Amino acid sequence: MMKKGYFFRKCSIYVIMMSALSVFFAVPVSANSAQTKWRGTTSTGIIVTDTTCPVIVENEVLTFDIQEFPKQHYKEISEYLSYSGKVTATYTFYNPADYTVSATLVFPFGTVPDYGYLYDADLDTRVLDADTEKYDITIDGKTVEKKLRHTLTDFGSQFELSKDMALLHDGFMNDDFYDPDMPVTQYTYIPEGVDTETYDAASTAFVLSADPTKTKVLMENQNGGKLLDEAIELQGWVENGEFIVHVIGEPLSQMPEWKFYENGACEKEIDGKMILTNTEVTTLKDFALTAYTESSGVMETDWYQAVVEQMKSLEGANGSISAVDFQFDVSNRLMRWYEYDITLEAGERIVNTVSAPIYPSFDMNYDPTIYQYTYLLSPAKSWKNFGSLDIMVNTPYYMIESGSEGFAHKDNGYACHLTGLPEGELTFTLCSESEPKAPAFYNSELSMPEIVFGIDILVIAVILLRRKKT
Q1: Burial class of residue 22 in the structure, from the number of CB atoms within 10 Å of its CB (0-12 exposed, 13-18 middle, 19+ buried)
Q2: What pLDDT digit, counting tens, does each position of 201-240 carry?
Q3: How far is Cα 311 from Cα 179, in angstroms, rounded to an integer?
Q4: Beta strands in 128-231 (DSSP E)
Q5: The model's pTM
Q6: Nearest Cα residue to 173 out of 302, 39, 316
Q7: CA-CA distances (angstroms) from residue 72 to 23, 36, 80, 359, 450?
Q8: pLDDT tens for residues 242-279?
């Protein structure tokens, strides 16, 4: 009798180092102000477009208020929301042009930190945005209307302005293949007559050969696959029971011909048959929204976009979509954004303030624990002109590491004044003691970001996404 562990399968393998056992991550995005598309409107209604947006950043004041460190785990939503650490970015924008500039701005404020995920039993859903009420956006002291947006992201991924901005869409995204109204045919199969007593690693598979420009196929409960000459074999453990084959787009030229095997190598056949129990036709929109609920706080279109982007990232040979890593519930992979509109008249100056809780990554291998904060400054270089930058860290803790900017110790924390944007990003590390003890395996040649695997913490970013004609 062969065991499953003897066979090669596409599976998740976790290599756990001693140093990783007590390293906790926020899984956020980090970005400063950046601008992309814009448009101006003169008093006569003429649309003005140029290669460079005329709006400039005269000054940015970046204030970190860190009077406490986050906990490793929160049991109650109220306890999580009581965490007081936050960052506030105040931008002074100026429009030197002789025409009005209107724009829609967005800023990403990261994913929910891994120590902040909570489950609401009453709503039967993961709590995604319980903390968003603590965020605020004002222009000249007045609160502005804002919209919560979400895009797909990967754990630990670095924020990239062009890549992540491209995931924001108005309405349903336009794609060369995927369309919300396209048909998705769902075939439900159940295996029968398989001797699982003798073959406890019994597997089933069928060969898929489809035109990927017309058809995509995703098989639920897939465990692996095997590339053939001009096709791919989709495989799954028999014990998984129900197999649902989703055919997206045009129908298959022939129905799946299932075979059964002793084990995951899918080499020696055994007896068995696959029974088609149900056939259902739906739309890609309904398919993508399988796990969606309005109580999640995510826009329906944003959830759809996230699922489609996930499928695109998992596309393989011959129209296959790997179901090994596919999830209908993408709530733990969503980066959060706020979107709002601004208008600057000719020669007008406004003060835009954004604030949010800040979630650091931390390493408990140090005694006591150290906490790292990162704020990406590089995207702000896309502005036509960026003036001075003042950074204040209000905290009772010790700053044991910082970047090249150089902080001066003040009564209430640390401060730094820069006449422009520095090279690289803003990083600093706090601790309750001035000289924490490093673990025995610590390598002094490694930088702090490498020690914690380069995971950035939540940071505010204001990005000029597009402008609207007023």
Answers
A1: middle
A2: 999 999 998 899 999 999 999 998 888 887 899 999 999 8
A3: 13
A4: 136-139, 142-143, 147-152, 183-192, 203-208, 215-219, 224-227
A5: 0.80
A6: 302
A7: 10, 38, 11, 11, 21
A8: 999 999 999 998 899 999 999 999 999 999 999 999 99
